[in-house]
Design goal:
Largest sheet: 9 strands, mixed
Helix content: 25-40%
Radius of gyration: 21 Å
Number of helices: 10
Strand order of the largest sheet: 1-17-13-16-15-14-5-7-6
Distance between the termini: 32 Å
Order of helices and strands: EEHEEHHEHEEEHEEEEEHEEEHEEEHHH
Number of strands: 19
Structural class: alpha/beta
Length: about 450
Amino acid sequence: MNAPLSDSFANGDVSYWYRGLGVPEPAHRLGGDLRADVAIIGGGYTGLWTAYYLIKADPSLHVVVLEKEFAGFGASGRNGGWLAGLLPGSPQRYAKTHGADAARAFQRELFTSVDEVIAVCAAEGIDADIVKGGVYNVARTPAQALRLEQEVEAQHSWGWGPKDVSVVPVNEHIRVEGALAASWSPHCARVQPAKLARGLARAVQDLGVELYEGTEVTGIAPGRVTTARGTVRADVVLRCTEGFTATLKDNHRDWLPMNSSMIVTEPLPQSFWDEVGWQGHELLGDFAHYYMYAQRTADDRIAFGGRGRPYLYGSKVDDRGRTHGWTVDALWQLLLGFFPAARSTRIAHAWSGVLGVPRDWCATVGLDPSTGLGWAGGYTGHGVTATNLAGRTLRDLVLDRGTDLTALPWVGRKVRKWEPEPLRWTGVHAMYRLYRLADAREAGGVPRTSVLARIADKITGH
């Protein structure tokens, strides 16, 4: 079944989140060589948060942000709008290198970071449609239900109580068709991603940060950033390029650019929201291997996401968010599986974007004091909140502050590179092919996680 498209349907054009704002044109371009204290590559959340906290800590700093397109062009302007306290990686892997207490401290900081973002938006007058309504996850097969219960038990074993995450009655928050089990956490807020990105860009410029858009970085070296429009010399150079890191020659295999896609419906009537009980602007997710994520937007649409074509050969990135028709159809069918009553609406917009995935699926932040080169990213899809923590951590590293943040287990974490092609493409596509098959088997009644999913995890280290 082909998805019904609205008369004004748009495919790509970065994302739906810019539809009301207008897709920005690059504003101030670098006009030649210059000298700065800190040069930040990438005008997404990581780069903007880092600039914000640096200039707030020391207004005398000369901070420059260099962005190829416009601030918020990448994942920061395309994500699902989950301001969630989710760990960007496995707590067991962080605990293995730094101990269980360090992993717990990391998680606590992420919970706190949700409220930090909300507080900064309030202080800086950034209207990003933020509502802290929590996150509601559902299981729609017996195997998913078992995973959900095991995940909540695991969270409790790490020290988080029922107030942080708990199993709740099915349909307590949202009535999802076929739901067998559900969990709830208050540590999540809805956000309009592009409004947050553009608001941050305005805020940092008002504070004195120089943001140069339309300025592609072609080379990074200690003390120097090369662009086609001039060279920036700086004591500290920070790479904050997330899924676009693979476009840098020297970092091509550092992080894999994983693709994710979204659709958004036309506005739905109040009768629909009453029928499904989605009243508190909760975020919605599930426990499938080929998982989905959704929000109720400020203008009463469903923004619904999942994996489309998960990876393009050679670590290529998408064409301004354009999405394949079969991905749009697949997301529509999945949305109807959750909410049959949505059949009366149509799809208004579809788009895609890339996120950064390290080889061990754990995010990292760091600064080499001997070279002045730093980095942050690899959030594996959990970056809306983690970028804020990364920005505050980079601030402390740049200013040579020994703080609780600089002791977190993602600081200085380095992992091996991804395999060269065609191994990279083969491995990722095999992983998602196996995930799809595992979900299909579990939907057929397999009571436990399919062995196919376990094989997929081993292939890519997920």
